[in-house]
Amino acid sequence: METTTQTSDPPPREQTKQATSPAAYLMVLLMGVYLGILFSKSEVAHWQRIHDMFLFREAHMYLIIVTAIVVAMVSMLIIKRFQITSIEGRPIRYSPKPYHTGVVIGGMLFGAGWAITGACPGPIYAQIGGGQWMALFTLVGALLGMFGYAALKPKLPH
């Protein structure tokens, strides 16, 4: 006696969750290590550099920020031109978010936190990796801010 089982068609590709390969995780880890070294060597993760930037004492950080913007612009042009996809194989698209009051408030809070702690989210890890243990407080504050935003998001202006 032969039994058959019915199978339904597989879900469309968009609905299928693809597992990220260990090689992809390794590449992300290596990129993080590279950025940590870059942040340390360029002194982007040093509190005094950030402090001097906000007091307009030196142009070091402004030059790094402008360089990062140029690199991002060129990278986006290359991504568009060659239709490069993400690790998951999805197209990379840039869609600017609309301007609203929340952007101004969020930007002011971000800037104040950056000025006080000497770190935006990326260099926090470089500071911790470099033995600046006070950056753990910055990390906790960043995580609290992230979770607070997620909790308040439905009530915030968007």
UniProtKB/TrEMBL annotation:
Pfam family, one: Sulf_transp
Residues passing through the membrane, by range: 23-39, 59-79, 99-126, 132-152
Domain of life: Bacteria
Lineage of source species: Bacteria, Pseudomonadati, Planctomycetota, Planctomycetia, Pirellulales
Keyword Transmembrane helix: yes
Official protein name in the record: Putative inner membrane protein
The entry's keywords: Membrane, Transmembrane, Transmembrane helix
Coiled-coil segments on the chain, per record: none
